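SAMPLE LOG
Freezer: B-3
Tube label: C17
Construct: single chain, 1483 aa
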Amino acid sequence: LFYYFLQPYINIESVLMEMGLHGHLRDKLTLKSVLELGKSSDDDQTAHSFTSLPWLFLRKLMMVNSSARSIKCASKGNSEKCEEKSINMIEESTDFNDNQESINPLDLITALFHCADPFLQQEMALKMSMCQFAVPLLLPNSLRDITKQFRFHGLEENSIVLTDLPLISFVRLGKNPNLSKSEFLNKILSSKQQNYDTFICNGLVEMSWYLPRGEKKIDIFKEPVAMANLRGNISDFEVQFAFLSQTSSAVFLFCDDLDSNQTFLNFLQLSSKLVLICTTNDHTSRDNLKQRLAQMKLKTYSVILKDGKMNDAEFVAKLKKTVAEIVASSIKLSLEKMSMIATDLGIQVDENNTICQNAKERAERITRDIENIPDYKMKELPLQGKPWKEISKLEKEMCRLKKARKQNIEHYMSELKCQIQNLRMEQGNHRMNEAIHQFISGCCSNEQLYFLKWMKITLDSLTRKHLSRLQEQYRDACQNPKEDKERLRELDNQIASSSLGIQHFMRELSQLYESAHFQGNWNHSSLKKLPELCAQLMLNGFPLELIDGDASNIPLRWIGDVLSALNKLTTPHNRIRVITVLGVQSTGKSTLLNTMFGVQFAVSSGRCTRGAFMLLIDVSEEFRSELLCDYILIIDTEGLKSLELAKLADSYEHDNELATLVVGLSDITIVNIAMENATEMKDTLQIVVHAFLRMKEVGKKPCCHFAHQNTADVAVQDKILRERMSFFQQLDYMTQAAAKMEKKSNNYKFTDILEYKIDGNNWYIPGLWLGTPPMAPVNTGYSEEVNKFKGGILDILKKTKLPAQDFMAFAEWIRSLWKSVQFENFIFSFRNSLVAEAYSKLCAEFNTWEWAFKKHMIDWYTKSETKISNMGVITEQSETKVNLDRVLVALKCEADNELEKEEKKLLDTIQQYFENELEHVHLVENHKEDFFNSARGLRREVEMDIRIKLENAILIQKGIEKVEEIKQKQRDTLRDKVLSLIKVCRNRTHILSETELNKEFEKIWNDILKENSFTKARCGEGDIQTRLIQLACDKIIYQSETFITNKTEPKSDYNSADIQELLCFIDKNLESCKEPEINPEIEAALKIHICGNAARAFQKMHDDYIERTDPLKSLEQFKDQWLADFKDLYHQRDQCQNKAEMCTMKCFAPAVMEYIQKHLGPDIVDEMLSGERGLDFSTRSFFQFSLLKKLLWDDDFTNILEYVHNYETYVTEWISEKITEHFSKKGALLKLEIKHLNAIIKKLKEAAESAQSKANICNNISSFVTYVCRSLNKELVIPSDALNASLALNNSNPSEFIDCFKSSIEKMHKCLEDQLRDEKNVRHKLTKLSVNKPQQVLFSRVFGCGKKCPFCCAPCEAGGKKHTNHFVSIHRPQGIGNYSWIETNTLVPDICSSLVASEMSFRCKDTGYQWHPNKEYRQIYPDWRIQPDTSIEATDFWKYIFSKYNMKFAERYRLKPADIPADWYRISKYQANKSLEDTFKTK
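STRUCTURE (predicted):
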């Protein structure tokens, strides 16, 4: 390196040790480590220790804060009081050891340069130059980033290293100067209006520049000049002095002691002009000094003597005059040329190392032949030219379909797709050029960082030269009134395309990669590694182009794979927060980010930012726990209201797209506003607010901060309140305007779309420069306000509850947002897999909670219904009359309590789900109210269902009670007669034979029958006659038949309310049947037909009920039992065993089997919802995927037709088949049956044991049985006839009966288990389930709201039943649903998801048969959300189906086949399957 860092008497290691930099002598500090976001314990101006001093300095320097040299260090002394140690200016004569309380700022800077790697050195030098600090003279690499702009012969801009300038050097001879060089150098370079310190103190070689602005009255010097200051005594640094003497136009030598330094001066040989500067005290000493000079052999250009009479201003004026005279006729050298002189003097030049030189040569091989930049780009970087720009236009046209006119939409889209494919093929036909090959080679070498730096430096220089030449031509052309306008336009276009940087080479790589991926042609193995290479570059701090500003497009595959590679490289530390800046062109957006984060987005490389670039900032390990992320990704965007785009018709649209994209990608968006331009501010706000509204509508929660730049007024905070309120009102006005454009409610306020505080979300930042460039430093106030702004942003990130996303999630947001903004109606075009996944998870969770709710209430109702059914048994045995009306009231009240409790539990669960910091849950926040409404609707639905069922159960029980009274009278009469007969028979002289006993019993039996003969009742509506009408209403008839079957299956009596419920059911289905229209006459005939069927079914239901409950029939059923009991009593035989077995097998066995059947349904549902098969039923979308996949692989047209036209039937049968298929394997159903059998047998045994243990119960058989029944009155419905028959004429010993009863339970258990095992037919078992049918529960779960797409009839997949918007994942060609062209009678191939993005129109009954634009479909169907296809492959499934069965559909509908695009026929079954998997994201 060209300079010695510290003076010989300073121990460098001790200095570095004290500042904590000793470890970086070998392990160099990197720019990445310096820019890392860390948790700082220091305040803005004071470091807490010497070790944190360098980091505080670097942090302020990276933010271009001129106060970096004024920081202080607070340390604890022996008194434990905080003392401040400053790094401030000290006198030139003071050395480090003389003042241990201070550190010379140059010593700190020098130490940092010594510990920094070359790239950090470059950045430090650049930032110091922006602060107008003098920089250590490093030749020349570390100064190459410094680019200066000035006016000499016109406007000039160039790297300071390449600019030929006169060098004026200031040196000192002697140890105790009376004058400070640094002080007077600062005064020379400062105008009256601008005072700042450039040279901070005495030191080694520091350099600064004076650059004129082209105004004679203000410029100190008319031409640019470089100033060098050699720290210390030149006699100690002869090599450095020799270098300066050979490269300088003049050397200003400060020497007060000529006598002591006479020898040195006599031998002084200078090739440059020498200006000697001495101080004198009086006239005598002045004369003596002149005499000594005359005696010396010293050749001087000028001698300047400063005595006590000359003030500093006069002295500085003389110095300026002398410098100006010398500069006017001086030699000029660039720093690059000076480095060759340094080499000759044996000074080590930083660029002369092997790696740096090899990288330079490699960069020169690529750039040496560049003469005309546009021509070079066309020849060497062809892929990003015309083909890519054409692809971009075609992709947008595929989304907007504006040029389709009257063409068939699907044919037009196929043509566009073909054109894109051809352009991709054209790209693929280009061979990899040598320049790109060399570029890839350089990026993959160990010289990567040096190579990219050289490429940047060289390309920036070429761009500046090329632009300078073109701009000069443009100025000349403008001054010539005869100049052809075409020539001006041509020059304008050349200027616009004359930027060339690393981003253009990276862009070419992206197109190479996209092309190779499209063709599957990886001829160059290096191409596959490009994403990982680019990812590594991003980790090293290089920006990546997100949006190609020239083509206004994003290479999605490339960006996605780079981010995927980043994800792999950083996992598990891959969480990111995104910060973006938006604003009008040339308002300092890039500068704001550069200042805030210390980065280096391009701000002066020929033109403004085009497109968007993203850059990663590391978050330190200890700070990650606070920010809850590992990286901050910052996005710099091109300016809104760009002058280059303003001439284009769609410039506002372009700005909207850009704003929507970056707002959607961001956690925080900074809106940069230049206060001096109110019109531009208004336009910017309109664009930005539009973007925020869009994000609000799609579930994103944007955070916005406004940066008001150039607020120069010192009283801004006090005076700005009115302006803030006015600004807030403008935001509200813009929000309403944006809502109107998006066809949303115009009642929106700005605070409705994001959280906004007038004080907290506005930042007022003064102007960037303190004075007028080029000699103005960056305004300290600017840096400090930006630092406060940065702190505010970090505080917001610390407080946010939203989880950070990883790189893969970020890639998905880029994909979905970009695809969506290409459609005109963004809000209804947006489809994001992360949102879809979050919604799917929410739906799956809600379905689980919904089933838990339903299952709980099913269980409650089953027990309640069982309890009601047992009322008669308990009443008979306890002889206590139960008031059923009171029971109904009590049960309704209990049901309300249960529902209230379960509803609260469900609502709380939903609330907790949204409050938990689950990944991506915030994306579905706008669906929260839908699910709350669905939960409340579920409660109302279940409540209504339970109330009706309870009322029916009570009504049935009331009827049973009346019948039971008759039956009880019969039993009592029969018992009395039997007992009387036994007495008579026993009083006879002989024992009666079996025949005689039978005859005696038959007599009393016939008497009972005569006494109790009845006339069977008939249902009053059994004679309804209707005419059967054949209409096109099969679907409604089928649904009604299902409804009737469900009503008549339970073994209960007809309820007059059933027919009313049926009529309501028919009306509901008629409402949903809009096409074809059903007129009142047909509607009446349909209802008569259905009600006729219902009347017959209900009549049969009633007849069956009468048959079952006929008292005589019941009596006759147990005739044999009465006869057997009569004989046993007559012969006085023990009845214990028989009675116990009868009680278990006739009473409890049927009840146990009914119990099993009632509980199988919910268990079957649970089983179907568990494991992999549960995915099919987890959400409606997954269910649709399963159905469609089965249709695809079954390849059966009949099934497809059934799915399309009889969806409910098909779904129900499919579910039934799924259940049967699963439970036919490995005895799955039997396992459930045995489980419930064992459970209820266990309860039965426990009830018997409990009854036996109670003394007052076990002494009476009736009490014992009643207790057991009462214990199980919520589980088992005991048949009262069988129970009463078993208890009548029972003379058993209670104790023995109980023992026999317990042993009979075991026999019953085995018998029932054998019975269950013997029944192998699962389908038959499932059809016998009369309540809680699993197929109906599952159908209800996946059927949802039942709404269908108004265009293609695809079923809605939205979660819950009370959602506000219906949607479908895959829409169908309309011809599948029997739509045809009126003129030709051919089936329509158009797909509604394509039509809604087109300029086409539609008409139907809902439009009054008037034509209506497809884009405005929501005016007709406001509750439908039909998303345009973001990919032409999304509907490949239905395209495949339609193209394969086109003829069959036509035959079925008696129409002509559709005119299908040719590429549909090329879709394979596997492509169709892949489209399903991609659409439903199953992989």
